[in-house]
């Protein structure tokens, strides 16, 4: 699975698109073109959609805002308001999505996603962000708190994601904020100060789960703020990794899904066939095996509830959870700008 993911990331960097069905184009993260996730679409049309890839949410938005054409895109939750404000998307017709009502309510709990104008977002996949650590070099008691990331003992031995959303989720949690949708200036500054401390311990910022897993597997770092899929890669390689999802301050949950792009060049009906294939119960096992993520459909998740990867990385915890639902675009831009300063040493 690590090889597949790395290969997919290479393809994303070396080619603009993976051509297949010329009547439907998906703009997506590398790795999600795995056919088993949307097998129903292939069963109907005999081929995969055409895929174009991006490396992060902000890159995807900028490319679409600059005129790149696709039929659907796969942003994570905090980006949806930007797509709406820019007029890039239109509501979904949920009468054409029979499994829409099986999506767990918490994934639609925002007026950004669903309001009087319609449903703007179909959440499909989710994961956890928490502390990955080398169980042979890091005592379990050290990762009982997020303050491990500022512990001088681990200077030059930690890794954080090169993602403003993920590092701010960490910083807010570490400083006592579990809801980032209504952050005060004082809370922001407290988190920013903590993030500057954490930066002093960072050996490298990782840009994708395979890179994070490789940093740990090589021995370059002992602790990482990690998505659960990076942990799965390490487990598959028999690396001694723990995943602490219940430090006293809590952990984070992110989720992503599909938006219906305005004036897409392909056939609209195929967008609905694609989403329906994604929401099929069989997609859950394929998604878990390929990417390591959970499914937003309660019916689909029920088919994989006993899988070890679900029990170890996606199960409920008693610690606080910061859900990465949308905060205001202004706040997110502020976080982006501050994170760039932190990485630059300012």
From TrEMBL:
<keyword id="KW-0574">Periplasm</keyword>
<dbReference type="Pfam" id="PF13343">
    <property type="entry name" value="SBP_bac_6"/>
</dbReference>
<feature type="compositionally biased region" description="Polar residues">
    <location>
        <begin position="316"/>
        <end position="329"/>
    </location>
</feature>
<feature type="signal peptide">
    <location>
        <begin position="1"/>
        <end position="19"/>
    </location>
</feature>
<keyword id="KW-0732">Signal</keyword>
<dbReference type="InterPro" id="IPR001188">
    <property type="entry name" value="Sperm_putr-bd"/>
</dbReference>
<feature type="region of interest" description="Disordered">
    <location>
        <begin position="316"/>
        <end position="335"/>
    </location>
</feature>
<protein>
    <submittedName>
        <fullName>Extracellular solute-binding protein</fullName>
    </submittedName>
</protein>
<keyword id="KW-0813">Transport</keyword>
